[in-house]
Amino acid sequence: MENTDQKKEWVGWLKAIIITIMLAFFLRTFIFATSIVEGESMYPTLQDGERVIFNKIVYTIDDPGRGDVVIIHQPPKNYVKRIIGMPGETIEIENSQLYIDGQAYQQHFLSDEVIAQTNNFGPLEIPENNYFVMGDNRLISKDSRNGLGFIPRDDIIGKSELIIYPFNEFGWID
């Protein structure tokens, strides 16, 4: 009798472990994943070496929005950038001011110092099904202005949601 109870307990544990592994695989593959920030292009929002969780399913339900901090897959690596321009819009930076379709856009996520150091750019019209992205550290960021170009919708693989490491930086991403 004791042997049968032990077998049942082992089978129960084995089932729980298998279900946990399958659930973790499903969540990691289809819902959430982690990424490590490389470089200072998103400083001060994100810093080099931080580990973030990004939401992989959000953009199957909805489209990316202006201001979203997204993960962009362009082999051989992923990039973390902020969406600035949407499909069909015209982007221009003149005298450190960002204009979207001719209207001044306030970048609340940037310091006045970074805004003042942003070089003139554009005007440039964003093609349909593409986005214009920039890093928050505008002076050193490789982004839509200087290397990444327009970002096709299919290259945006998730929205950065949460900093999980280092632990003293744990929190939601603006």
TrEMBL record:
GO terms for molecular function: serine-type endopeptidase activity; signal peptidase activity. InterPro entries: LexA/Signal_pep-like_sf (IPR036286), Pept_S26A_signal_pept_1 (IPR000223), Pept_S26A_signal_pept_1_CS (IPR019758), Pept_S26A_signal_pept_1_Lys-AS (IPR019757), Pept_S26A_signal_pept_1_Ser-AS (IPR019756), Peptidase_S26 (IPR019533). Gene3D superfamilies: Umud Fragment, subunit A. One of its GO terms (biological process) is signal peptide processing. The chain crosses the membrane at residues 12-33. NCBIfam families: sigpep_I_bact. This is Signal peptidase I. The lineage of its organism: Bacteria, Bacillati, Bacillota, Bacilli, Bacillales. The gene is sipS.
